[in-house]
Design goal:
Layout lengths: L2 H5 L5 H36 L4 H59 L4 H26 L11
Helix pairs in contact: 2-3
Protein name: CHM4C protein
InterPro entries: Snf7_fam (IPR005024)
GO biological process, one term: vesicle budding from membrane
Length: 152
């Protein structure tokens, strides 16, 4: 950890995620190395076969040790992946909650200048004016009665 992380009481989620990814990468490289070594020891064992049983047996023992290390690395990688995913989810949840808090504050600020009584009065005025506009529209669109009086 850097001095900046220790001063804040621990690493940031980004710093921790970066380190976990570095560790995953390092372990993946070690996996590749061990897989290569296992193949090499298997080839040595085949090469010596029944001609030199002792050398073949030693190669198989080394292969077995490498396989054990490989299994340990697999387990460690699984644990690290799980931890990284959990940290990513926690970080995402934290950001979501933070942004929801900002939105709630913004809504509160917008609403602080609104008076419910004034809003009700305004909505009544709007409804009344819409009714008046509809009455005017209806009156204009109805045919005048005088046109029906004439007979052809």
């Amino acid at each position: 950890g850097s001095a900046a992380s220790k001063g804040r009481g621990g690493p940031s989620p980004q710093e921790a995620l970066a380190r976990l990814r570095e560790t995953e990468e390092m372990l993946s490289k070690k996996q590749e190395y061990l897989e290569t070594r296992i193949e090499r020891e298997l080839a040595v064992a085949r090469q010596h076969g029944t001609k030199n049983k002792r050398a073949a047996l030693q190669a198989l023992k080394r292969k077995k040790r490498y396989e054990k290390q490989l299994n340990q690395i697999d387990g460690t990688l699984s644990t690290i992946e799980f931890q990284r995913e959990a940290l990513e989810n926690s970080h995402t949840n934290t950001e979501v909650l933070k942004n929801m808090g900002y939105a709630a504050q913004a809504m509160k600020k917008v609403h602080e200048n609104m008076d419910l009584n004034k809003i009700d009065d305004l909505m009544q005025d709007i409804t009344e004016q819409q009714d008046v506009a509809q009455e005017i529209s209806d009156a204009i669109s109805n045919r005048a009665a005088f046109g029906d009086e004439f007979d052809e």
